């Protein structure tokens, strides 16, 4: 074992829907994250990102495959062990409106984990820690007695982050944590997360359907399409030299701050709908939408193959290009 902090190997999660139908939400996904670094997980809505993230917190138990955190296999641990895992792994959610209980004060929300884990017997110690957490995320101690609806979206997400930090976790799954926020607020939250990573040596799985912020925070990026990774590698490589037609399409949709480039740049419009994750066709899952598809692509699913360094892509067409390059 190479000692990566997070190691997910061949993860599969199938949901049974309706009569004898199987929805392959996550179908053989593998990745790893080094301690103190960030993996960005990107892809359109419904591709399985949240399902992957929930496995790291053991909200879901895998059907197949293994999840190792800090060297320990957590794939099939007990309920009690899952509670213990919460001290190590926490999640921040997309919707800061829905994810905070509106009947609790901010202090109660942040301190809930202390009650569950029977921490801070003294009221003062507990209150001090809640105040400290509020200040860490840029709020103030007085906010502890207020209710979530009194805060803006960005402030609520700060409360969600304070809650996630309460037990001093080592890994945080940020599930579309900034997607619901205005762009200017997104940058503030991302910069704060980057700062916390540095000072607390946190490891992140940063899930997003919008690619623009991922580039700033993620060391590595994994692109997911219908339950599988189609491209994976160092963020600079994936963004600088995208290889999979799907990644190229996603990136082409990201607006740049350069108006000259924007005027001259033609977007790759991805046609067609995302195929159905229920009983998928054989072959590449992107086949129906792919501009570069060949006959083989409709018949055989391409495996992830290395195209240089740790840059990997699952595409028959890209493999041919690699062949050309190496001859
Ligand atoms: N508990 C569940 N039961 C049945 N289907 C589910 C469940 N959770 C997610 N799905 C389905 O699995 C697929 C992946 O969902 P999800 O992981 O939420 O995707 P994403 O986070 O990328 O939008 C979707 O088709 C979704 O409808
Ligand atoms: Mg999701």
The number of distinct structural domains comes to 2
Order of strands across the widest beta sheet? Answer: 6-7-8-3-9-10-12-11
Note the gap between the termini.
Answer: 34 Å
Task: Indicate the radius of gyration in whole angstroms.
Answer: 21 Å
User: Ligands bound here?
Assistant: adenosine-5'-diphosphate, magnesium ion
Reading the helices and strands in chain order gives: EEEHEEHEHHHEHEHEEHHHEEH
CATH architecture of the largest domain: 3-Layer(aba) Sandwich
Shape: globular
Structural class: alpha/beta
Description:
With 327 residues, this protein is α/β, with parallel strands linked by helices. The chain folds into two domains: 6-88 and 169-326, P-loop containing nucleotide triphosphate hydrolases (Rossmann fold, 3-Layer(aba) Sandwich), CATH 3.40.50; 99-168, no CATH class. It is 32% helix and 22% strand. It has eleven helices and twelve strands. It has helices at residues 49-56, 79-85, 106-116, 123-136, 153-165, 183-200, 214-217, 235-240, 245-252, 259-264, 316-326; strands spanning 6-17, 21-33, 38-42, 64-69, 72-73, 89-92, 171-175, 203-208, 220-225, 228-234, 305-308, 311-313. The strands form two sheets. An eight-stranded mixed β-sheet has the order 6-7-8-3-9-10-12-11, with helices on both faces. A four-stranded antiparallel β-sheet has the order 2-1-4-5, with helices on one face. α3 packs parallel to α5 (153-165). The chain is globular. Residues 320-327 have low confidence and may be disordered.
């Amino acid at each position: 074992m190479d000692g990566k902090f997070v190691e997910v190997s061949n993860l599969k999660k199938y949901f049974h829907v309706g009569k004898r139908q199987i929805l392959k939400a996550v179908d053989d996904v593998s990745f790893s994250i080094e301690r103190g670094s960030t993996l960005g997980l990107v892809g359109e809505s419904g591709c399985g990102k949240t399902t992957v993230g929930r496995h790291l917190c053991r909200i879901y138990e895998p059907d197949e495959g293994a999840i190792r955190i800090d060297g320990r296999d957590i794939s099939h641990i007990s309920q009690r062990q899952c509670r213990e895992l919460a001290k190590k792994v926490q999640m921040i959610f997309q919707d800061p409106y829905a994810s905070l209980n509106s009947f609790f004060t901010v202090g109660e929300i942040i301190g809930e984990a202390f009650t569950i884990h029977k921490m801070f017997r003294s009221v003062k110690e507990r209150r001090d820690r809640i105040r400290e957490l509020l200040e860490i995320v840029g709020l103030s101690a007085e906010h502890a007695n207020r209710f979530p609806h009194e805060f803006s979206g960005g402030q609520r997400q700060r409360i969600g982050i304070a809650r996630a930090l309460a037990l001093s976790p080592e890994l945080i799954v940020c599930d579309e944590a900034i997607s619901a926020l205005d762009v200017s607020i997104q940058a503030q939250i991302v910069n704060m997360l980057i700062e916390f990573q540095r000072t607390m040596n946190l490891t992140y799985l940063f899930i997003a359907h919008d690619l623009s912020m991922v580039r700033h925070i993620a060391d590595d990026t994994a692109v997911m399409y219908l339950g599988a990774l189609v491209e994976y590698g160092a963020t600079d490589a994936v963004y600088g030299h995208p290889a999979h037609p799907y990644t190229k399409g996603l990136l082409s949709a990201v607006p740049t701050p350069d108006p000259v480039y924007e005027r001259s740049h033609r977007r790759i419009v991805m046609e067609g709908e995302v195929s159905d994750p229920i009983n998928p066709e054989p072959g590449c899952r992107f086949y129906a939408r792919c501009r570069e598809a060949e006959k083989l692509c409709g018949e055989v699913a391409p495996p992830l193959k290395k195209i240089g360094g740790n840059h990997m892509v699952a595409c028959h067409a890209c493999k041919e290009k690699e062949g050309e390059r190496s001859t």
